[in-house]
Amino acid sequence: MKNVDKYTRGYFMPPVTSLKWTQKEYITEAPTWCSVDLRDGNQALVVPMNLEEKLEYFQMLVDIGFKEIEVGFPAASETEFTFLRTLIEQNLIPDDVTIQVLTQSREHIIRKTFQSLAGAKKAVVHLYNSTSVAQREQVFRKSKEEIIEIALTGAKLLKQCAEETEGNFQFEYSPESFTGTEIEFALEICNRVLDVWQPTSANPAIINLPATVQMSMPHVYASQIEYMSENLSYRDGVILSVHPHNDRGTGVADAELGVLAGAQRVEGTLFGNGERTGNVDVVTLALNMYSHGVDPKLNFDNIPSIIAVYERLTKMKVGERQPYGGELVFTAFSGSHQDAIAKGMSFREEKSSDKWSVPYLPIDPKDIGREYEGDIIRINSQSGKGGIGYILQLKYGLDLPAKMREHFGYCVKNVSDQQQKELMPEEIYDIFKNQYVNLKAPIELVKCRFTEEDEQDFQTIVTIRTDGAAKEIAGSGNGRLDAINNALQTHLGIDYSDLVYKEHALEIGSKSQAASYIGITAASGTVYWGCGIDADIMTSSVKALFSAVNQMVR
């Protein structure tokens, strides 16, 4: 990077050390959430939402649980104005939801904003003007005092218009481009605005400190927020709010550390939609809190349905690796990860734990509407025996012996590698059936019958078919399966040892069926596996043995 010398740090540290926030471990209660999807989010879309789309999006935000929703900049366009009037006139705003509107500190814009709000049950009027060094010098070419005067003029007009307009209004002020503003000047302008509004704990004002453009590491922003929190006038009458953007990719960290530093309110959007690299993602913030056992007071228990509405209305896409919401964020392809997850899920079931602690899964995917099947463990050539066995057990109820899982894992990985694709659960099950289940070639079991001389002596006659011809073979043993095993080895001239046997009822699907697994070791040392599935447990065992033998002799 050859032009590094043209850049310098554009932020301003507080004049005193502000690091009390570092002593806090985590966020202990939810801040007030304000969605700005319909303003910041909407203005960042290639094709902004129309009236019907905005109404549907607004309802989704209400359903999620937002109690404050910024609905737009009503003086900016007729669509914005009409949307707000529709919400008010059609009584679409629940009594416990406060709408918020944005206005510049310009008289005609403020007056039109209040026209749009007539009759609102409760609304926040959000006043802003730019205060940063770059904006003052390059855009407005005004002194600090002239910038303060812009803010004060707007603040006074808000009070006047609120008295003249039917409705219930709360005021908010943002020193826009706060992160590029000298911290003492940001404090001065906010306190001058508060002097106009004279807020109280019963009638508080909102001071919003936006990271309009991220210019520092998150700890610097937190120190700035703490300094402002401790030095604002009328502090008991001020709700301190943060509004991080994501230029440096640390919007979530800015918001979280900002809350530790004294912020009581967060403005953000679903999945971080917003200008440039976006606003802070409220979904991530809320579910980060949830993962610490703190109720975020927002309902994301069906993330897939929220994503479907979000993508349809905004024409944006939620990235596959977007925290919590992305298609692949809970998915493990790696064999070691899959094995750890599968064992963690089994451990949780064994211990009946009421606390969530599963390797690689910070929260239970089911809590936000994701499924274990297909969402957590997905299979490709990088996968391992644990994950593949987990898929079979979860979806089809097949609990393979450990060594058989390993053998089958290589089969599946080879198929995935050759086909260069991910394998779906149905494809994995088909591979399993074709490889192991009820194999009939080259030796087909037709029927078998038993006689019992005593508890340790069983005789069997087995009818088999090879090369299209049926014949009977006889054997004896200390059990039914042992008798058939001896018949096969004696009459077919095959040799194997070390039977590994496992059986269980199939609890998924038809409960009347049973699954049996058998492994046999050939003279060469190679282990061959078979599975039998049948309504009768003895028959499933015999079919498993025939399947293993067929694996060996063919």
UniProtKB/TrEMBL annotation:
Compartment(s) of residence: Cytoplasm
GO cellular component, one term: cytoplasm
PROSITE patterns (alphabetical): AIPM_HOMOCIT_SYNTH_1, AIPM_HOMOCIT_SYNTH_2, PYR_CT
Gene Ontology biological-process entries: L-leucine biosynthetic process
Binding site for Mg(2+): 40, 243, 245, 279
Entry keywords, A to Z: Amino-acid biosynthesis, Branched-chain amino acid biosynthesis, Cytoplasm, Leucine biosynthesis, Magnesium, Metal-binding, Transferase
Region of interest: Regulatory domain: 439-554
Keyword flag Cell cycle: no
Enzyme Commission code(s) on record: 2.3.3.13
Pathway annotation: Amino-acid biosynthesis; L-leucine biosynthesis; L-leucine from 3-methyl-2-oxobutanoate: step 1/4
Main localisation: cytoplasm
One GO MF term: 2-isopropylmalate synthase activity
CDD domains, sorted: DRE_TIM_LeuA (cd07942)
Matching SUPFAM superfamilies: 2-isopropylmalate synthase LeuA, allosteric (dimerisation) domain, Aldolase, post-HMGL domain-like
Record field: catalytic activity: 3-methyl-2-oxobutanoate + acetyl-CoA + H2O = (2S)-2-isopropylmalate + CoA + H(+)
Domain Pyruvate carboxyltransferase: 31-304
Necessary cofactors: Mg(2+)
Coiled coil: none
PANTHER family: 2-ISOPROPYLMALATE SYNTHASE, PTHR46911
NCBIfam families per record: leuA_yeast, PRK03739.1
Family note: Belongs to the alpha-IPM synthase/homocitrate synthase family. LeuA type 2 subfamily.
Quaternary state and interactors: Homodimer.
Function of the molecule: Catalyzes the condensation of the acetyl group of acetyl-CoA with 3-methyl-2-oxobutanoate (2-ketoisovalerate) to form 3-carboxy-3-hydroxy-4-methylpentanoate (2-isopropylmalate).
Protein name (database record): 2-isopropylmalate synthase
Lineage: Bacteria, Bacillati, Bacillota, Bacilli, Bacillales
